[in-house]
Each structure stands twice: as C-alpha cells, then as structure tokens.
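Lab notes, practical 5.
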Amino acid sequence: MTDLASVSVRAPAKINLFLRVLAREASGYHQIETLFTAVDLCDEISVDRAECGVSIGVTGADVGPDESNLAYVAAQSFLDATSASTGVHITLTKHIPTGAGLGGGSSDAGATLRALNVLHGKPLQASELLGLARDIGADVPFFASGLGRALAWGRGDRLLGLSGAADLPVLLALPSVKVSTRDAYSQLPVPTDRMPGMMEPAAFERWDGVAAIAVNEFETTVFSAHPELGALRGAMESGGALTARLSGSGAALFALFEVVDDARAARDSLSSKWPDVRFVVTGTLADQPVPTSTL
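Output from the prediction step:
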C-alpha cells in the first residue's frame, strides 16, 4: 500500500439533546446519560507525516499549550499505541468556540485519531480507537466513533448509535460568557446512585419525540449563576423551535427547528435583541465527516 503523506478531516461540534448526571464515582468522575448529536460547525484538521514526534500549529481560538491540546494528546497516544516509525504534524484551524459545551477539544481529539488511522493504513480496529479515546476524555469516544447521533452512558464512552430521523436545522447561540465545566459539576447536586432513564426506542425516530424528552440537568445551576442564559433559552424556544436547551455545561445553547427559514428568522430576530451573542444556523449530521487523504 502506498504511504499517504497527508490526511484532512473536519471535526464537528456536538449538542446534547438530553443530559442527565447519574452519579459521582469515588474517583471524582461523573457518570452521565446523554444523547449526542453532531452538528455542522466544524474545526479543520490536517495530519501530515513528519520525521518523529508530534508537533501542532493552531489558528483561531487560543487553546493553551501544545502539550495539553487534546489533538496533540490524541496523536501522541496513537503513535505510542502503534509504535509508529514516523511522527506527525497537526494543523488545526479552530471554528468551534472553546468552553462552550460544544465539545470542540474532544472533537479535535477524536477526529485526529480517525485521521491518523487512515494516514497509517488503518492499523487499529474501531474498538481500539475507542479504547484510546476513552483514556483521553469523556466525550472523545463519540467523536472517535464517527457516528452522527448516539446515546451515551458512563463517562460518555458506552455508545449506542442511532439513525432514522432526517437531519434538522439547528440554531446555535454562542454567548461571550464562559462556564467552567469543573464548576458546573461541583455545583450540581448529584446522587451517589441513580439508574438511567427508561426510554422507548421510538422516541428517537422522530424529532418531536426527541424534543419531548429533551432535558439538561445543568440548566438549574448554570442559569442561576448566569440568568441571562436562561432568558436567552426562553427567547429561542418562543421563536418557534421544537425545543431549546443548554449544550453540555454551557455556555452555548441550541434550538431545533423543522424548517431552515424559521431558524434563520429566529437568528435575525434574536441578533437584534442580543447583540453580544453570536447566532449560527447549522444542522445536525447523520454521520461525522470522513477523513480524506493525499498521496
């Protein structure tokens, strides 16, 4: 097989169509139950062969030191696991805002794993990629799976892929306020033992069924600390959305619409009333973008 020189991939954001916190483990990690959906707001990643080691160049948002960047961590993990004889340079262009609950860093890590697997001729099976992803972070397995929609449990690493519902327009609200995930978890009253909810599979086959069960348990504490986010969610929902919710621990919010023109009309209306918030009309993805190669 001819060695590939470069592989590119788009790393999508995610929204949580529902999110429940089940329990806090003795280790301090939290078990969750959530419905991930990828949306078409994407970072751009290219992985190129290098002589040795891992290097990364980032444009866009400041994501901190290279060694703590999750794409960098993912690349090092992949090279170690495969005993690769060459290194890699990562080029990352950020479009997903950081600290927004949209999974940008986790998506970069998952997409990097998938891209490197293609670059190296797919030495790892899907289960092995998920094993690497599990050790990197809570949301990374979803992004490493390539699924567009999935139920997740545990630390977000137990996945059940879903299909059936057509893609739907999404309005994202991206406020300038930042919400610390660590603080959001620490302020949330969490039981020591709580069972996952009982949900009928048919609920996921129609978006109105998904909207009916949409919930995010971070909203109570996050909206208490940032009441403007609660007001914004209410305004988005009253604009004709099927549902509007906080994504992850925030601060981004999303609204699902049946018609893209309605999402655009809501964007235009809300933009005039919330000038400090960036509104983006996008859509759900049936599958995450596939890595593409260059010889």
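Observations recorded by the TA: The chain is about 30% helix and 30% strand. The two ends are 11 Å apart (CA to CA).
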